[in-house]
Amino acid sequence: MRKNIPIIFIILCLFFTVNKISAQENSIQTSYRIFEKDYRYYQSLIETFNTAKSKNLQYNSVTSQAEYLQASKNLLMSEINSLISFTVFLKLKLSDSTKILKYNESTLYLKLDDENAFLNNFKENIIKISTLEENKISWKTFKTHYLTVKNIAFRSKSLIEIIQGNKILDDISDIQDKMSVYLDDKKQDDLGTKAANDKLTGLAAKLILSANNIKSAENLQGGFRLEDADKNSSAIRNVLNQFCLNNQQIISGYENIINTLQ
Amino acid sequence: MKNQKEMIILFSFFLILIIGVIIYFFSFSNPSTITQPINNIPSPTPSLPFVPTPVIDSIQQRKIYIIESIKELKEEQKILQLEDKSFILPDFIFDLSKEE
């Protein structure tokens, strides 16, 4: 029995680890589904809001104003709920993709935490709104926070894409080394092997191009301004698209070498 | 209420029974725990003569390993190529018409 205790312990550890990983993946998908549900609910309220608003503009009566205020508050509340679920999703995605939160990622994570806490408290203020003026101030406040979350999302996207790019670059370098060793072990007097060696040297030059692309993306990320998050994120994406194109040529080259040699 | 209590008791009983069976299985199914006279230990199976692995096999294995690595790399590349649109927060309406 004593000898079996470590085996039982390992089995239990494996069971809980597998469960934890699948739970994390599930929670990301679930959180996005919750966001989609909240967003659809918000969309369903738009028509009611537009009708109430135009009715109030037309009649400007006490009843129409009350209806409009209520419709506006409902719409704002649904948008807050959507934004809260989006921040939850983004936090999970950020922590899952980066695995270890470094300075940049943890700053974004904490900002999202702050936004989440603010929005949850903000919901209580919305319930208390009784005038059109208060309503407008709340909308203005909400817009600021919406833009903050939107910009954080753009930055998170770029961060994660660069992390993925770095991983790909490491893997390509690894394959390049393995290919080099593989060709060295093959007969050197073979003409095919010599041609393959030449081709591999050409691919090494392309690998430097890919490494430069990643460096450019990292530099852009370094100067990332949340105010221009959309533009910065697009610029990083363009660089990474070039990186992907270059990688495709390298990968095709490797496949060509490995499939040609017997 | 009474039924619920009965159900809990029944469930606990079965749980204890299952744990007991598992413990029993691990205690007695392991041959190392059964005391055996030293003389009865079966002699080890005769070892096969040592055959060195041909070099060509290791190169072939390396080739297979490289092909597998390229496959994995292509999958990673696909993920990066397919831009993750879930990060992009969709547009919202802001009721600020008079101020804008």
Structural class of chain A: mainly alpha
Helical residues, percent of chain A: over 70%
- What does the overall shape of chain A look like? elongated
Helix share, percent of chain B: 40-55%
Task: Describe the sheet with the most strands of chain B.
Answer: none
Shape of chain B: flat
Number of strands of chain B: 0
Provide mean pLDDT of chain A, rounded.
Answer: 88
| Radius of gyration from the alpha-carbon trace of chain B, in angstroms | 33 Å
Tell me what you see in this structure:
The complex is a heterodimer of chains A (262) and B (100). With 262 residues, chain A is mainly alpha-helical. Chain A contains six helices and no strands. In chain A, helix 2 packs antiparallel against helix 3, helix 4 packs antiparallel against helix 5 and helix 5 runs antiparallel to helix 6. The radius of gyration of chain A is 27 Å and the shape is elongated. Chain B is mainly α and 100 residues long. The chains are: A mainly alpha (262), B mainly alpha (100). Chains A and B meet through helix 1, helix 2, helix 4 and helix 6 of A and helix 1 and helix 2 of B.
